[in-house]
Amino acid sequence: MSRRPANSGLAALLLALAAVLGAGCEKERGSPYACTCTFLTDFDDNSGSEVTVCSPSAERAPDFARGCAQSGAPAPVEKCTCKVEKGSGTCEVGLCRNRPRGE
Fold first, then answer.
1. Which of 82, 89, 96, 99 could covalently link to 50 via disulfide, CB atoms 3.0 to 4.6 Å apart?
2. pLDDT tens digit string along 34-68?
3. What CA–CA distance (Å, rounded) separates 4 from 38?
């Protein structure tokens, strides 16, 4: 009767876990989106900001943009509308930058 060492199953489990965790270190890739965000002010004007964000999908781009725009907005961000920047390749999800209006 042949017996495996008691900890060989544990070793296999640890190797599998290390492989899964190692693969999880890669950054999620997405597409760049040009977004225009508006914010609420005491004035009745068209206040807003423009940001570029990296999102995994068009549906999630406005949420990424809202967080990005809020960092530089003088008031709460109301909403953001985004469109994919065609031909820009891929980017690391979550990256964002503020753009001058009209860029």
1. 99
2. 999 998 777 666 678 899 999 999 999 999 999 99
3. 65
For residue 24, give both structure tokens. 């999880």
Q: How distant, in Å, are the alpha carbons of 4, 5, 26, 53, 91 from that of 68?
A: 55, 54, 22, 8, 16
Cα(66)–Cα(103) distance, integer angstroms: 18
Give the number of residues written for the chain: 103
Cα separation of 84 and 58, whole Å? 7
The CA angle 33-58-89, to the nearest 5 degrees, is 45
Say how many C-beta atoms besides its own lie within 10 A of residue 48's C-beta: 19
Q: In which residue are the tokens 């003088």 written? A: 74
**Element (H or E) spanning 97, and its range?**
strand 96-99
| pTM recorded for the entire structure | 0.68
